[in-house]
UniProtKB/TrEMBL annotation:
It holds the Pfam family IclR_C. The keyword Hydrolase does not apply. It comes from the Bacteria. Residues 10-70 form the HTH iclR-type domain. PANTHER family: HELIX-TURN-HELIX TRANSCRIPTIONAL REGULATOR, ICLR FAMILY, HTH-TYPE TRANSCRIPTIONAL REGULATOR RV1719. The keyword RNA-binding does not apply. InterPro entries: GAF-like_dom_sf (IPR029016), HTH_MetabolicPath_Reg (IPR050707), Tscrpt_reg_IclR_C (IPR014757), Tscrpt_reg_IclR_N (IPR005471), WH-like_DNA-bd_sf (IPR036388), WH_DNA-bd_sf (IPR036390). This is IclR family transcriptional regulator. Keywords: DNA-binding, Transcription, Transcription regulation. Residues 71-253 form the IclR-ED domain. Signal peptide: none annotated.
Length: 259
């Protein structure tokens, strides 16, 4: 059999792989920016991106920009957009705030980072401001660690193949150290952040799973360390778990409804 190698097709594969790497690393691409990164015409970039969308390696947002699709998301495919998740989780987030009376937040995994997508800020004089849209390394955040603890070692190694992203207040700096910390999270069922995201802030995090049982988000508390009381941890963990369970039930109902 002759080797019918086609340089044009191989070049197309290489370009598609370049796009996959960019998307997997959390980049958001327009057709124009994708073309510029690849050094090709917008029409070529559009065809490549369209192919990735068709295979669930990319998805388009309302502004027609391309983001990582379900095939590239480590925690597994989710049938819910960020906006849908925010809407479904909001009642549970409000109940959680009522239970802990401190800043509470909702976050999702974005590559090796977490993105804050909703929150309710405490009205106490000394409180932690709720973040919105911010990104930070997942391994520093209680919610991020709660999600990461649900991943396999193979998934973690792939996610951190280039090492842990440096962060000024991080307590762990290597993947082996992170794995040991996540092993403890798996045993307790919740994660702790003690001034790892920023000085003076402590908190707890519990993972939210989708209808297939895979991690998709997390609820967290964010409390000034000066007011953080270890004696309240069991009550706060209970409230976090109840909020996560309520959200999971709503997600399960939504996943079972006909579309």
């Amino acid at each position: 059999m002759r080797n019918l190698e086609n340089p044009v097709k191989l070049e197309s594969v290489d370009r598609a792989l370049q796009l996959l790497v960019l998307l997997r690393e959390g980049e958001v691409l327009s057709v124009k920016s994708a073309g510029e990164r690849l050094g090709v015409a917008p029409s070529t970039a559009h065809r490549l991106l369209g192919t990735l969308v068709a295979r669930d390696f990319a998805t388009q947002d309302r502004e027609r920009r391309y983001r990582a699709g379900s095939q590239l998301v480590p925690q597994g495919e989710s049938r819910f957009s960020v906006n849908q998740l925010r809407q479904v989780a909001r009642p549970a987030l409000q109940r959680l705030y009522g239970d802990v009376v401190d800043t509470v937040q909702l976050m999702v995994l974005a590559g090796s980072h977490v993105r804050f997508i909703d929150g309710i800020e405490s009205e106490a004089a000394l409180h932690v401001k709720a973040r919105m849209g911010d990104l930070m390394p997942a391994y520093c955040s209680a919610g991020g660690k709660a999600i990461l603890a649900e991943l396999s070692n193979v998934e973690l190694e792939q996610l951190y193949r280039g090492g842990l992203t440096p962060w000024p207040t991080a307590r762990v700096h290597t993947l082996p150290a992170l794995k040991r910390q996540l092993a403890a999270v798996r045993k307790t069922g919740y994660a702790v952040n003690t001034e790892e995201t920023e000085q003076g802030v402590s908190g707890l995090g519990v993972c939210i799973r989708d209808a297939t049982g895979k991690p998709m988000a997390a609820f967290t508390t964010a409390i000034p360390t000066a007011r953080y009381q270890k004696g309240k941890v069991p009550d706060h963990v209970k409230a976090l778990r109840e909020a996560a369970s309520a959200t999971e039930a709503e997600l399960l109902t939504g996943a079972s409804e006909p579309h």
